[in-house]
Fold this sequence. Notes:
By secondary structure, the chain is mainly alpha-helical. The protein has helices at 5-22, 27-31, 35-43, 60-72, 77-98, 103-113, 127-141, 156-171, 205-227, 243-256, 262-279, 284-295, 298-309, 325-342, 362-370, 382-385, 387-400, 405-418, and strands at 154-155, 177-181, 188-190, 194-198, 202-203.
Amino acid sequence: MHFGENEKQHIRNACSEIYxxxxxxxxxxxxxxxxxxxxxxxxxxxxxxxxxxxAPVDSSVVLLRMKSIRSNLKSPEFVxxxxxxxxxxxxxxxxxxxxxxxxxxxxxxxxxxxxxxxxLVDAExxxxxxxxxxxxxxxxxxxxxxxAPPNASASAExxxxxxxxxxxxxxxxxxxxxxxxxxxxxxxxxSPQVIRIRRDAMFTDRDVGQLIHHEASIHVGTxxxxxxxxxLPILAASHPGTTTTQEGLAxxxxxxxxxxxxxxxxxxxxRVIAIQMAVEGADFLDVYHYYLNRTDDETQxxxxxxxxxxxxxxxxxAPFTKDIVYLYGLLRVHNFLRAxxxxxxxxCLRLLFCGKLDINDLPVLAxxxxxxxxxxxxxxxxxxxxxxxxxxxxxxxxxxxxIDLGQVRKHYKTMLQDMPQLTx
Length: 424
């Protein structure tokens, strides 16, 4: 599609305004808990619900700005539709933060991120069903002798050194700084400028690979690519409309590079199960003990439960639903990549990395790319540049999907059940 110079300038202006407005809606920063909450929880011997106060939010300023942007949109219809969807996401985000600590918070969280029982694209499965299926598989695997679990012996200092070296190799002079911090809601958190690692955290070798491929190559990489989009600065914004695809792409990066393991997959499944527990009325202590039975690690169990209840209601019924996106996003990204191969459209692959986006944004971004407005990504993960391997893997995955697994199970069931049990 041809865009006149006036249309291009209007699109640039609208994207810039939306991006600027989005920067005032910082969801995870606003929902973070001070370290004093954890200290008080354990001072009370983990017997009392945490008490958290959130700074008040007045969404009216953001909503008025979004209203002005909406009324001034004069882009072609398909571009306006894309931008209006982003505007709605930012409006909903602001209203969600305004309702922290109330059931309304969760209602808006579900609008942004979905719920564990919402149907996936196939209209048959749900994130909760997927998580329970993984959980059942992990129980089966637990009966096997898989050897000792990986030892979390790598210090934060050692991990910071490794991640810093990897980031410099990926991004050169644009590599983010890697720093150790005393207080952080997770073990690590990335932005285009800095990757923060909690000073008292310990890591396994797999954890280091996950940090490099998840946080650095995807989250930092797509942020830097988005910041270079001079015509479409909105591609640098991490609004909730991009979360499912960005986290799905990041988990896929762990998967395709061999950095993921059963423990990591189980943690992702547990997040969905824990959110559903809270939806059904479990309070913070219930979810904390659910995790404690899984890990026997008090601090990590607190942090896992905190992810579920940040912004929500401690007594249950109203959690933060964002963490369902990891498994759902992985499935969505994987299926998109397989469909891309089946359609012979591997030309779309690099477009996934041009900034912070959702898979459904790709048609409009392809049009804008053809018009010279969406620039090619500078930073693309190594696994995505090795197109021969990736396409081979995806083609094989696509073929496996056509096989009737029920018939395969039936074929091998008798053979396997007659074989003696082995000690691995």
